[in-house]
């Protein structure tokens, strides 16, 4: 029952360290870490319904909605009800949201330098974390 033997603490400490390293980088582009994750998905996939965005980010509607409202208030996204299904809200990037991608391009490289892992170590760590998430979620 030692703290240092607990996987949960190692994950917690790593997550806090990583998020802390992201903070100053994201402040430069006026995003929080959760907002950055939303923008990453939209930059990659384009316009999406809120439901799909929540699924991809593993966030519930109640957590996602305030993030989207703030991004909309900052002029980075639009939320639009679908004509064919008014229950569905589509999230699209504004021109400013699209342009922000260029300013955000330096973030992954800065994080990679801070992590100081080889490409192989990064791939292996990511694979283990994805498997851990899938295994724990299945139970």
Automatic annotation (TrEMBL):
Q: Which InterPro entries match?
A: HTH_MarR-typ (IPR000835), MarR/SlyA-like (IPR039422), Transc_reg_Sar_Rot_HTH (IPR055166), WH-like_DNA-bd_sf (IPR036388), WH_DNA-bd_sf (IPR036390)
**Pfam families in the record:** Staph_reg_Sar_Rot
Q: Does the keyword DNA-binding apply?
A: yes
Q: Which SMART domains match?
A: HTH_MARR
One record GO biological process: response to stress
Any Gene Ontology CC annotation:
cytoplasm
Give the HTH marR-type domain ranges.
Answer: 4-134
Cell compartments where the protein resides: Cytoplasm
Q: Quote one Gene Ontology molecular function term.
A: DNA binding
Instruction: Tell me the domain of life.
Output: Bacteria
Predominant location category: cytoplasm
Instruction: Provide the protein name.
Output: MarR family transcriptional regulator
Q: Which organism is it from?
A: Streptomyces cadmiisoli
């Amino acid at each position: 029952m030692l703290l240092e033997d607990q996987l949960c603490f190692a994950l917690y400490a790593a997550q806090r360290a990583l998020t802390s390293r992201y903070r100053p980088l994201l402040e430069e582009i006026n995003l929080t870490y959760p907002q950055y994750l939303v923008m990453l998905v939209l930059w990659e996939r384009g316009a999406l319904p809120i439901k799909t965005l929540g699924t991809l980010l593993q966030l519930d509607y109640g957590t996602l909605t305030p993030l989207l409202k703030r991004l909309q208030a900052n002029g980075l996204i639009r939320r639009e009800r679908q004509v064919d299904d008014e229950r569905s809200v589509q999230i699209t990037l504004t021109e400013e949201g699209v342009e922000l991608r260029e300013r955000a391009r330096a973030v992954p490289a800065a994080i990679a330098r801070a992590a100081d892992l080889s490409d192989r170590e990064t791939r292996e760590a990511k694979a283990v974390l994805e498997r851990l998430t899938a295994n724990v979620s299945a139970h």
